[in-house]
Amino acid sequence: MVIAMKRFFRNGLLVLLVWLPAATMAEIRLPVFDAHLHYSEDVHAMIAPERALELMSEADIPRAMVSSTPGPAVELLYRLAPERVVPFLRPYFTRAQRYTWFRDPELPDRLRTQLDRIPYRGIGEFHVSGTNADSDVVRAVIRIAQQRQLVLHAHTDLEGLGFILPEAGSTAVIWAHAGFDVPVATLRRLLDQNPHLFLELSYREGITEAGQLVPEWLRFFSDYPRRFLVGTDTYNPRRWAEITDLAAEARHWLAQLPAGIAEQIAYGNAERLFAKDE
C-alpha cells in the first residue's frame, strides 16, 4: 500500500488528475489523507489494530492523523504501521479530563514524558472553549508544540481560537470541524490573517445541500485550495464501522471540484504538512 501510494503521488497519474474535468472526478476513487481519526480505548477494545488498518485500506485512506484517549492505543497502531499513522497526543488521558485539563498544572510535565514514547507529530485533538483557552496550561502546551515542531489540532470555538492563534504564531493550527457553523466570511478573514491555520472539515455544516456543493463553498475551496483537510472523526466504534461511507461522502463533494483542487484537499495539503523523511 505504501509503495503504491508513493507511486500514485509521483507518477503520471497525478498529472492526469490535475487536468481531468470535474465531471470525470466522480469516477476516480481519490485516496484520502484522513486528518481526524481517533483510535481510543473503547474502539481498541472492539477493533484490533490490524483490523483498524484494514478498515482504513477498505476506505482508501493510506495515511491518517490519529489520536487516542488514552495515548497508548495510538502508539500500538503507530508501531504496527508507522508509514501510515501520523500520531497525535491528546493532552488528557481520560475522557473526564477533557473538561478540566486546561486547569491542571501538572499536565505539561506528563505531556512531555509521553511525547518521548514515539515520534508524535502533533498535539490534539484537544477540547477547549472560550476563555478556558486563556490559561497558563494551554500556553504551556502551545510552547511544547513550538519547541518540538508539532502541529496543534484544536476543537474550540471562535473565542477560544482567538486566544490560541496569537500564542501559536508560526506553529500550524488545525481547527477541527472548521468551527462547525462559523460563517464562511469569518473563515475567510481568519485564513487571510493566519497563514498557518488549516480548516479540518469533519462535521462541518453547510458545505453541501442535497448532496451538491453550495456555491459559496465552491468559491471558498477555489480561493483557498491549500488550507483545507478532510477528516472522518471516528470518535466511537460506530464511526469506525462507517468509515468507508464517510470517506465516500467526502469524495462525492470533492468530485464536484476541479481536479487539482480536489486532490489538494483530499490528500495534498496533509501530505505537505506531514511530509515523510526521505
Outline of this structure?
Strands 1-2-3-4-5-6-7-10 form an eight-stranded parallel beta sheet. Helix content is 47%, strand content 14%. The protein is built from 14 helices and ten strands.
3D structure, described in words:
- Helices cover 47% and strands 14% of the residues.
- It is α/β, with parallel strands linked by helices.
- The strands form 2 sheets. It has an 8-stranded parallel beta sheet.
- Helix 8 links the parallel strand 4 (122-127) and strand 5 (151-155).
Write the layout of secondary structure elements.
Layout: H1 2-10, H2 12-19, H3 22-25, E1 34-38, H4 41-46, H5 49-58, E2 64-67, H6 72-80, E3 85-89, H7 107-115, E4 122-127, H8 136-148, E5 151-155, H9 158-168, E6 173-175, H10 184-193, E7 197-200, E8 208-209, E9 212-213, H11 215-223, E10 228-229, H12 237-241, H13 243-254, H14 259-273
Parallel strand pairs: 1-2, 2-3, 3-4, 4-5, 5-6, 6-7, 7-10
Antiparallel strand pairs: 8-9
